[in-house]
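To: structure subgroup
Subject: Chain for Friday's discussion

All,

I'm putting the inputs and outputs inline so they're searchable in the archive.
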Amino acid sequence: MDARDSIIDGAVKLFRQKGLKSVTMDELARSLGMSKRTIYENFRDKNELIETCLLKLSTDGLARRHKILDTNKNVYEVMYQFALLQHDELNGVNPVFFDDLHRYYSALLAESKRKSEDASLTLLKRLFTTGIDGRQFRNDTNIEVASLLVDRFFEFAIKLIDNYHINPCEVFRTVFLPYFRGISTPEGLTELDKVSAKICEHKKK
């Protein structure tokens, strides 16, 4: 692993533990056992480092989701695995991380979302294509529209959970479930009901 990758990995670990605002470049250098000069040779400033870390988190997360889709053509089971993965990704993250992100680095967050939007939509289009090919989604589903809509669903769901502290199971039942029931075939509905039960059972734990 080269110095740049080591810095990114170390920064992600510290940011997840302590938040973004309180972590200094001096602290990061000490934790990595390298000079602060080495960090600045690879990153212009802290903002560039944070932006790079956000993009890495997004890119790595999307890669893991594509891998899940590679190995399972049951799209509802795939979505359940996505939900488990998101839970694991958020596990152990200090809530201050998200507070700092929205309060002090909202412009970087918006830029990170903009850069990863195409990749996110590509994943969703692949998901819908797989569902249609597997006869779990109706074949008259507009993949482009469905992908854009569900992408916005995710943003809305995160706001409901983080800002209004609404139970994730209730968010799933109210935001996602009616839409997916509407585009599912009879075979798809059977799988959707199975996964719905598993998702809400998992959220109770």
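Points worth raising on Friday:
The mean pLDDT is 94.
The longest helix spans residues 106-133.

D.
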